[in-house]
Amino acid sequence: MKPIRLVSGFLTVGFWTLASRVLGFAREILILNFIGPGPVLDAFVAAFRLPNLFRRFFAEGAFNAAFVPMFSKKLEGDEDAELFARNAFNVLGATVLALVGLGMVFMPALVWATAEGFFGDDRFDLTVAFGYIVFPYIFFMSLAALFSGVLNATGRFAAAAAAPVLLNIFACSAMILGAALGGRVINWLIWTIPVAGVAQLALVWVATERAGIRIRPGLPRWTPDMAHMVRIAVPAALASGVMQINLVVGQLVASRTESAVSWLFAADRLYQLPLGVVGIAVGIVLLPDLSRRLRAGDQDGSRDALSRAGELSLLLTLPCAVAFVTVPLPLVSVLFERGATGPADSQAIALATAIYGLGLPAFVLQKVLQPLYFAREDTRTPFRYAVWAMLINAGGAILLHPLLGWLSPAVAATAAGWAMVVMLGLGARGMGDVARFDTRFRRRIWRMALASLIMGGAVWLFGVFGAVFFTLPGWRYLALLALIILGGVVYFGIGQALGAFRLSEFRQSLRRRGKA
């Protein structure tokens, strides 16, 4: 049995996720340049959110929360894991195919339910038209998530982590080609999405074959394992998809203000960079590792895996959160302000980014704490917490709207994220020491926070005194690069001096990864 190396796996997933997010930035830059905030981008965001919402329920969220621990334990126990994966593939495929059919029939109702503010203007019909094209994407991505779960459970993270890169490559290429040929860029973009889904599925399917696991389509078979998996998956659907549900609630409120959906979309893309690279990468690696350690009775190893995952997460998340709060406008203006996106759009996006930045550590910690429950096949407890978090989010977004306007969804999402972390942390206390961060984590966390605050002061001063350089076409990119370098030097220098981390640990981890 191939062992899972936590740090090595994190670096692999983190690298490919970083590549995906960087290309995703390029995609969003092109979208904001060629399309820009307004009715068309509002419609695209609302339409593309539909398959992504259901993907969280049927793929990365509910399904993987149930499938990965069961598959990992069958691997650890030398049971017939391949047969289990084949049955899961056929059950998932039939279920999602039925969902796609229903979605195509009831597309106008889906759009109304998720973007009610569009009703009565051109955005509604445009969103429905886009929805018919992009909704089948969920079928390919749900099946790709199963193959990714198989690869992750066997300790092979590269192909699964690299697959999302294809969507961004396809989307960027399509928009550039569309602009060069003089067509409507949005049409090139919208039709590329299902094509990219097919490519992603093909990549992970081939990688699974090369790993020695053959999965073939067939008639779905309802077995005791499938029944058990579904019982776990149903409550996990809400627990893992709470962030997507919060985004939909925010979209419902923001849809009452033209361009607000576009502004929140751009801010979401910015804070998703560290969330994806750090939080999602750690969660992907931690869940199969915890599942197999708990199956083997390795309590000390489980606690160490949890603590190192939390440490790695906050090591990079805290400085990013501080940067989003202190210098959001320089980041947003350099990355997004061009073409159809103007200074007023940048100011709106920057304000939302600062609010989301306050919740970034919470969003990442959720990815660290949820595997404690999922590894034990307990999805009901996170389900209850998710319900409370959604109530906080929905209530906050609606009640704060008269006071804060379109910003109320960002404030409510941040508050709900921290509420979810508190509930997950308190609920895990009954699991014993295995669910508690160790002494090294507790000793280092406050030092990371202090180093992040010092870094925040340095980049804020740079942003104030060098503000003019962020507006000059020939200097803005150099100014942003200087800002990032300054932040990195200050943070890692102060952190090393305070004992928040040891840079030698990273070198050792990289050497071990090279030998693995």
How are the SSEs placed, and which strands pair?
Layout: H1 6-34, H2 39-58, H3 62-76, H4 81-105, H5 107-114, H6 122-134, H7 137-153, H8 158-181, H9 185-210, H10 224-240, H11 242-254, H12 260-295, H13 299-326, H14 328-336, H15 343-374, H16 380-404, H17 408-427, H18 439-465, H19 476-498, H20 503-515
How many beta-strand segments? Answer: 0
Residue share in β-strands: under 5%
Please compute the radius of gyration using only Cα atoms. Answer: 22 Å
SS content category = mainly alpha
Order of SSEs: HHHHHHHHHHHHHHHHHHHH
Structure description:
- The chain has 516 residues and is mostly helical.
- It has one domain.
- Helices cover 81% and strands 0% of the residues.
- The protein has 20 helices and no strands.
- It has helices at residues 6-34, 39-58, 62-76, 81-105, 107-114, 122-134, 137-153, 158-181, 185-210, 224-240, 242-254, 260-295, 299-326, 328-336, 343-374, 380-404, 408-427, 439-465, 476-498, 503-515.
- The protein is globular and about 65 Å long.
- The two termini are 14 Å apart.
